Task: structure prediction
Amino acid sequence: MLRKLVASGGRVAWYHGSGHDLIAYDAVADDRSKNTELHLVRPDGSERRCLTCDVAAIRKGFVGQPAWHPDGEHLVIQVENRNSDHRFYNHVSWGIDNDLWVVHRDGRSARLLWRTPAKHAALHPHFSPDGRRIIFAERVPTGEKLRGALRRVGPDGENQWAGWRIHVADVDLSREGSVLSNHRTIQPNGQGFYETHGFTPAGRITYSFTPGGRAYVEDSYEAALDGSGVRNLTRSPGTWEEHAQYSPDGRRLAFISSRMDPTLRFPGSRARDLRTELFVQDGDGDALQVTDMNGRGEGRVVVSDFDWDRDGRRIAFQVAWIDGSRHPEIWIAEWR
Result:
């Protein structure tokens, strides 16, 4: 069963603990600037409220990409910083010139967690199940400039798909001052594009990777925190595979993919032609397509960022129009 939860919403995080069942999401707050804010809502659509609108410490701009801390009281989010040009690559979907903040779920406090150097990126932060680690995808400028007119497109004239790695750190929210320590970076698959998606129930990390700075997302993987034991989860070269996440009990794997459209073959196909849907597989079984948002006749859409509920029976997911003609929506898929 599918139902629309929010008519205007973006990246989502569903709390998995027993304390509450709130869904955090970002949404456009101003159509002219495209600035976003963080919101909370219950799964039935009630008690919707903006969490960051009145938090003075949070700078106005691109704000979002939430992930819950296991205590259910704090969220980590990305916040566009003062180095930003407010371009597409500064949006929370890319994280370039985004800092990481921790905000309390009642909006009473916010704290800078990670200050990103100019033209670097911090993307898709996630806490470990025990709350002792944090991961995020980090981009470091490569110094390699694009040629011709392309130099006006990327950050500081570079290819935004190149220069990525996974940043791992210990975290202790009870500490005064800096709460992060023991920083390290890994590139389990070598050089290329990395995007972090979270932790498995066993404490391994899930992420997507594309080699060589090519402009698509090739496959999703899992690995140990030190980058060892890499396992390809989606195994579908030539298609766009992203956002792989296990259900909280580890029995199911969900991811988004373009594999339902045989006309899309990457890297030859263009990102502006992308269409994706949500897929779920049990164990090592076949992946089943559980959405058909492109079959509604409402334009070319991507099913994108999503999160499981605590029981592994529902998924809240984002639906975005690839041409940007409409605000993204948030839907819920449910299994009995």
Summary: The first strand starts at residue 2 and ends at 6.
